[in-house]
Specification:
The complex is a heterodimer of chains A (600) and B (180).
Chain A: H1 2-19, H2 26-37, H3 42-52, H4 56-65, E1 77-83, H5 85-89, H6 92-103, E2 116-122, E3 133-135, E4 138-140, H7 145-156, E5 186-188, H8 201-206, H9 211-220, H10 233-242, E6 249-254, H11 263-270, H12 272-286, E7 290-295, H13 303-315, E8 332-337, H14 347-354, E9 378-382, H15 383-395, H16 397-401, E10 411-418, E11 424-429, H17 434-441, E12 448-451, E13 457-460, E14 478-482, H18 488-502, H19 508-525, H20 531-547, H21 551-556, H22 558-566, H23 568-574, H24 586-597
Parallel strand pairs in A: 1-2, 5-11, 6-7, 6-9, 7-8, 10-14
Antiparallel strand pairs in A: 1-3, 3-4, 10-11, 12-13, 12-14
Helix pairs in contact in A: 1-2, 1-3, 3-4, 6-7, 9-10, 9-12, 12-15, 18-19, 19-20, 20-22, 22-23
Chain B: E1 6-11, H1 17-23, H2 28-35, E2 37-38, E3 52-58, E4 61-63, H3 64-76, E5 77-83, H4 85-89, H5 101-111, E6 129-134, E7 144-146, H6 153-165
The chains are: A alpha/beta (600), B alpha/beta (180).
Chain lengths: 600, 180
């Protein structure tokens, strides 16, 4: 034991010295420790803290926060199975029992003794090829009972997850540095994001322009944020520019965590240069020299590949010093991997995480444009927004505005999954109706769909005439389609469980409110609900929306509120006529107490 | 003389602090008894609950007696008010909810350092303890919640006056719902 500890201390010191002792390296250090030891135990946390000169609590705080960092091992190797709406539609429930049978382990109850541990994880960005799982960062898609059996057999025999399958997906997924069984499933290419282009065009065009002219072009294009909120990109950069500072940072938000969205996965696979060029455009406008891409842990399988793309771009003088031959245009990009936390897609939580801390959202204001990464002005944009910005520089604002609607210029890349014949990525001009999209994807008989994932809205077929545009239904692009047999309230229930799981717990309305809403929804689904429960849920939903600290809480009530609005008949059909029914079984509450105290 | 409206009060799993604060309305209690008659209440020691206009409940629901009392109040009171934080949220007694009941009882009656020949109480005359402490509104329909630990005498006074006035919308002034 003592020897083991000593060895561990040596290893930990190595890990720490590989990265450095500054606080912001902590995320990378604990990630490496997790990889090396299969968990970050109290001893490891202590050793890391000692080596970094910080308190152990800071290390444990980070470890306990993220899903893929654990304090105890969960099996010698762990299968993280994705759960959510798309996995459910594709049969993850049946797969659960198959996996438990072949591994002999139990979900959430796996320990060091299990050869193969089983854990749940929220959407891993593979909704178009579910059921899917992560094993040591390797993505396994389209898992059926046979594949589950052979995967487990491979892992039990000590096989490397990377070598489980020689099957590779389409496009660059088959390239050496990705070599994943993931499929792109690009069903529809638009002109802007997936249009043909030559790498470097945006940067070559860029250096011929004044930074102010570049900013004007982006402003003129009316480009709005593609993450869902739709903040005007040019305005954000302008705010950032107006904050005097020695350093500014460009951050690309590649923490695509909204269940049902996977378009950034495809963009990063097929058009990574475009994304990085977009970051360089922002860097040029804002006179920033450093860009950071925050890549969600689930996409770690793209990490080596993206690093290689960056290297090639450096070699081609598209990144680094004096880019494209322009004196003084220095800009480079590093990639920060996450460790599994939905809320890190929120920009201030993402910054905290990038600084090596728990990914808890900050209070806003101040906004990142004035106090961002390391307190410096920072522009944070979505992968797709930056890609569009690069294309705007290449082809001009007028060209960009020729797509979409007046208020929503350009195209939107949508992730379509669920009950459709052709799940995958669709780049469509803004203004397309939901019905048109369903026709293209082969989901005409849908009875409902999610526009914008759990944090968006669940709409019924009555709304299929509505348009995807900022002036009608704004969305980050997660479109999950539900066929005629779907249980809509079950879906809302699953979405609420997701928010309970992903709430960071810091503010009460979100932490407690999501659970209360869910319990009441369950009560109604069990046929014990009353009209007063509906009123309670509406009021509670308003409190959660209005009182939470960040965007997660702001939208966490949507699965309930939007189904009450759009599927009121489902709720009404389940209500009892009684005025009040307690949420708990009080007879059971009495019985439990009597049994423990041995009453006769 | 027409009959005055009746008010009943009960303290379930609470500390009687809310009832003590009710007495803090001082000489206004003289005006109050002009307005109402007290029915069952710890203040007057009436044992049987009659039909009442208003019931004030202090404390959460921790045992089977609390449960019965609360249900009886619901049956017999037109308006039922959760008074104070224990009634509205479980309060201090609900701290035991974080520990399984079995462990709580074993620590208190079997394993505690000062326990000699301990036994978990199971006399049939004792109310049996519930698995958890529940706020009142999770057990019966509650019409109004009056938060505070305790709510101030002024806010209890204001709420009683409002409820007896038969008006529609209660809006307590900010001073009465400010707790820091």
């Amino acid at each position: 034991m003592a020897l083991e500890l000593r060895n561990q201390a040596v290893n930990v010191n190595e890990i720490v010295s590989n990265h450095g002792t500054e606080r912001h390296h902590l995320m990378n250090i604990v990630r490496d420790a997790q990889d090396a030891f299969g968990c970050v135990s109290g001893d490891t946390a202590k050793a890391i803290a000692d080596a970094m000169g910080i308190h152990m609590v800071e290390v444990e705080g980070v470890v306990s926060y993220y899903h893929f960092l654990t304090r105890k091992p969960s099996g010698k190797v762990t299968i993280y199975l994705s759960k959510g709406a798309a996995p459910s539609i594709n049969g993850v429930r049946e797969l659960t029992s198959v996996l438990e049978e072949v591994t002999g382990s139990k979900f959430r109850k796996s320990g060091a003794d299990d050869a193969v541990g089983l854990e749940w994880t929220s959407c891993i960005g593979m909704s178009d090829q579910e059921p899917a799982a992560l094993v040591d960062g390797v993505v396994i898609t389209n898992i059926d009972a046979d594949k589950a059996g052979s995967l487990v057999a491979h892992l039990v025999n000590g096989g490397d997850p990377k070598e489980f399958s020689t099957e590779t997906g389409d496009g660059k997924n088959s390239s050496d540095r990705i070599h994943a069984m993931v499929n792109n499933n690009i069903r529809k290419k638009g002109e802007i994001i997936f249009g043909d282009r030559i790498v470097g065009d945006a940067i070559r065009k860029l250096v011929a322009m004044e930074p102010s002219a570049v900013l004007d072009e982006v402003k003129n294009s009316n480009l709005r944020g593609r993450g869902g909120a739709g903040f005007p990109c040019g305005l954000k950069w302008d705010f950032c520019l107006k904050n005097e500072a020695a350093n500014r940072y460009i951050v690309c938000n590649a923490d695509e965590g909204e269940p049902g969205t996977f378009k950034d996965r495809v963009l990063l696979t097929e058009q990574p240069e475009l994304v990085f060029e977009g970051m360089a455009v922002a860097g040029y406008v804002l006179n920033a020299e450093e860009g950071i891409m925050y890549l969600r842990a689930e996409y770690e399988y793209l990490y080596e590949y993206l690093l290689n793309v960056l290297n090639k771009m450096r070699e081609a003088n598209l990144l680094g010093c004096n880019i494209a031959g322009m004196d003084g245009f220095n800009f480079d990009i590093k990639i920060q991997l996450g460790a599994g936390a939905y809320v890190c897609g929120e920009e201030t939580a993402l910054l905290e995480s990038t600084e090596g801390k728990r990914g808890e959202p900050r209070d806003r204001p101040p906004f990142p444009v004035s106090n961002g990464y390391m307190g410096e002005p920072t522009a944070i944009n979505n992968v797709e927004t930056l890609s569009a910005a690069a294309r705007i520089i290449e082809k001009g604002a007028d060209w960009f505005k020729s797509f979409g609607t007046e208020k929503s210029a350009g195209t939107k890349v949508l992730s379509v999954s669920g009950d459709v014949e052709r799940p995958g990525v669709y780049e469509v001009p803004f203004g397309i109706t939901l019905a048109e999209l369903l026709r293209e994807a082969g989901g005409e008989n849908a009875k409902a769909m999610t526009v914008g994932g759990p944090s968006g809205k669940i709409v019924s077929s009555a709304d299929f005439g509505r348009r995807i545009a900022f002036e009608d239904m704004a969305t980050g692009g997660s479109m999950v389609v539900f066929g005629p047999d779907s249980d809509i309230l079950q879906i809302a229930n699953d979405y609420m469980e997701f928010f309970i799981e992903e709430s960071c717990g810091r503010c009460t309305p979100c932490r407690v409110g999501t659970t209360l809403l869910t319990r009441h929804l369950e009560k109604i689904r069990a046929g014990r609900g009353t009209k007063s429960d509906i009123n309670y849920m509406i009021n509670l939903g308003k409190v959660i929306t209005g009182m939470s600290r960040c965007g997660l809480g702001l939208t966490a009530s949507n699965p309930v509120l939007s189904t009450i609005e759009n599927f009121s008949e489902l709720y009404d059909g389940l209500l009892t006529g009684e005025e009040f029914v307690p949420i708990h079984d009080m007879d059971l509450a009495v019985r439990i107490g009597r049994e423990i105290a041995n009453f006769n | 003389m027409t009959e005055k409206p009746k008010v009943a009060t009960a303290s379930l799993a609470g500390c009687f602090g809310c009832h003590m604060t009710l007495l803090d309305i001082d000489d206004r209690i003289l005006s109050l008894i002009d307005l109402i008659d007290f029915d069952k209440s710890p203040i007057d020691d009436i044992k049987e609950l009659g039909d009442c206009t208003v019931g004030l409940i202090e404390g959460g629901v921790s045992n089977s007696e609390n449960l019965e009392t609360l249900r009886e109040f619901r049956r017999k009171c037109t308006i039922l008010v959760s008074m104070g934080d224990c009634a509205t949220s479980g309060g201090i007694p609900a701290m035991r909810n974080t520990v399984p009941l079995k462990e709580c009882l074993e620590e208190a009656y079997l394993n505690g350092p000062s326990v000699v020949d301990g036994v978990i109480p199971n006399d049939p005359d004792l109310p049996s303890i519930l698995d958890r402490v529940y706020p009142c509104h999770e057990v019966v329909k509650i019409d109004y919640h009056l938060p505070g630990c305790p709510p101030s005498a002024d806010s209890i006074w204001a709420v009683l006056n409002f409820l007896l006035s038969g008006e529609e919308n209660l809006e307590l002034p900010y001073e009465l719902i400010k707790y820091d």
